[in-house]
UniProtKB/TrEMBL annotation:
Keywords: Aminopeptidase, Hydrolase, Manganese, Protease. This is Leucyl aminopeptidase. Residues 317-324 form the Cytosol aminopeptidase domain. One of its GO terms (molecular function) is aminopeptidase activity. CDD domains: Peptidase_M17. InterPro entries: Leucine_aapep/pepB, Macro_dom-like, Peptidase_M17_C. It comes from the Bacteria. Belongs to the peptidase M17 family.
Length: 468
């Protein structure tokens, strides 16, 4: 497993001082009073009451001799995301107070993950700088927090891809990054470009035709360790920047469009996490790396495109390009008849209107699979919300001159009609799920810095790292 990116963890003090970080359950007043010692009255007067999420340093003769963080059980990893901002630079050894051994290990998994997610920082200001501070680190034995390390690395990789400006992360750069990450994990990678791409993925090629930066499709394959390993096929929308095409977006809607490859980033992060964990699966991954731009070569409203599956699609709106990218990729992915076909995309604003920025919308043609993913999200404190593939709306995408339109005739249920469009390219009998994600944190919160986000990564990892 690659050690990049750097995580704020160490296994010893590297010769320096290691200070204790006491983790106290809310309500355990006896333990808290003991830790605060002779300073209890002073700290209480300063407003430290042992509430959930409260933090204080412990003073001593030589200065700070430790810290206390109050933990509310059952909240998952995110509350620990505040600690990188609270702690001073140096090494901190977690001390779960009053915990049994089994609970101790589980708490450390959550602590490591939340701490690392909160410590993430993406800035081009520090490129090449020798003065960048590393910040505080957790001192954790290498034998502990293994899954948390895997998920944190994957989350950092995905966030980095989404946060990179579009001039530095075009289709070629996204494809190169994906190839590097997959090949590091012994995945056989193929890049499809040029005439081969136009022939194999005509809809995707039409989306990319308006850009001077050619589209690339990344295909990765790796067999499972066992002959009967379950087969998982991942598909990600990698629109590196979306102007909307001729149906151009207003400036306010275009400001965050570097994140329109968030589905590809999520699927790539998930693949890396599953492979790093040694999950016994036969894995395929397809990423459609493309830019939706405006030029004399761009597709127009009213054009009719022939898809890989042979269906003809009328382009009702050039800003509904993500479903065109996924259509050809889903059709190809289904040809190998995987046990589960999963796609992710920043597909619709309608999903955000319905569910807000934090809840990815989940669609599936298999209720057992959907419930498995939803339950995994609840267990991982990484929720999704299921919306229906409501068949009565399918006719809203009828076209008078083609098999279907990429735009609904009704200004309602946009996330549902987009998912119904995708379902046309999934053969009957193929188990499939679709995640419509926002891929962004508008504001900073514990464990979730503002910027790119791989929402549902932990949920999907839990769902597919176990039997499915």
């Amino acid at each position: 497993m690659s050690d990049a990116p750097f995580l704020p963890l160490c296994t010893s003090g590297d010769g320096g001082v290691v200070l204790p970080l006491h983790l106290v359950k809310v309500g355990d007043e006896a333990t808290l009073a003991c830790l605060l010692g002779e300073h209890e009255a002073f700290l209480r007067r300063q407003g430290f009451e042992g509430r959930a999420g409260q933090f204080t340093f412990l003073p001593g003769g030589s200065g700070v001799v430790g810290a206390v963080f109050c933990v509310e059980e059952g909240r998952g990893p995110m509350p620990y995301g505040v600690l990188p901002a609270h702690l001073k630079e140096g090494c901190w050894q977690p001390q779960p107070e009053g915990q049994e051994e089994a609970a101790h290990d589980a708490l450390l998994e959550e602590l490591v993950l939340g701490f690392c997610l909160g410590a993430y920082d993406h800035s081009l200001k520090h490129e090449g700088s020798k003065d960048r501070k590393t910040g505080p680190q957790l001192c954790i034995p290498a034998s502990l927090g293994k899954e948390a390390r895997i998920l944190a690395r994957a989350a950092w990789l995905g966030r980095d891809l989404i946060n990179t400006p579009a001039n530095l992360m075009g289709p070629a750069e996204l494809a190169a990054a994906a190839r590097r990450m997959l090949e590091e994990r012994k995945v056989a990678v193929e890049l499809v470009e040029g005439e081969a791409l136009e022939k194999a993925y005509p809809c995707l090629a039409a989306v990319g035709a308006g850009s001077d930066r050619p589209a690339v499709v990344v295909i990765g394959r790796r067999d499972g360790r066992s002959k009967d390993a379950p087969r998982l096929s991942l598909v990600g929308k990698g629109v590196c920047f979306d102007t909307g095409g001729y149906d151009i977006k207003p400036g306010s809607s275009m400001a965050k469009m570097k994140k329109d490859m968030g589905g590809a980033a999520l699927m790539l992060a998930l693949a890396c996490a599953l492979l790093d964990a040694g999950t016994d699966i036969a894995l395929e991954i397809r990423l459609g790396c493309v830019e939706n731009s405006v030029s004399g070569h761009a597709m127009r409203p009213g054009d009719v495109l022939t898809t890989r599956r042979g269906l003809r699609v009328e382009v009702g709106n050039t800003d509904a390009e993500g479903r065109l990218v996924l259509a050809d990729l889903l059709a190809e992915a289904a040809e190998s008849q995987p046990d589960v076909l999963l796609d992710a995309a920043t597909l619709t604003g309608a999903a955000r209107v319905a569910l807000g920025p934090d809840l990815p919308a989940l669609f599936s043609n298999d209720e057992e699979l959907a419930e498995h993913i939803l339950a995994s999200g609840r267990e991982a404190h990484d929720p999704l919300w299921q919306l229906p593939l409501w068949a009565d709306y399918d006719g809203w995408m009828d076209s008078s001159i083609a098999d279907c339109n990429n735009l609904s005739s009704r200004p309602m249920a946009g996330a549902i009609t987009a998912a119904l469009f995708l379902q046309r390219f999934v053969p009957e009998g193929q188990t499939w799920a679709h995640v419509d994600t926002y891929a962004w944190n508008d504001t900073a919160r514990p464990g979730r810095p503002a910027g790119g986000e791989v929402l549902a990564l932990r949920a999907l990892f839990r769902a597919f790292s176990e039997s499915f």
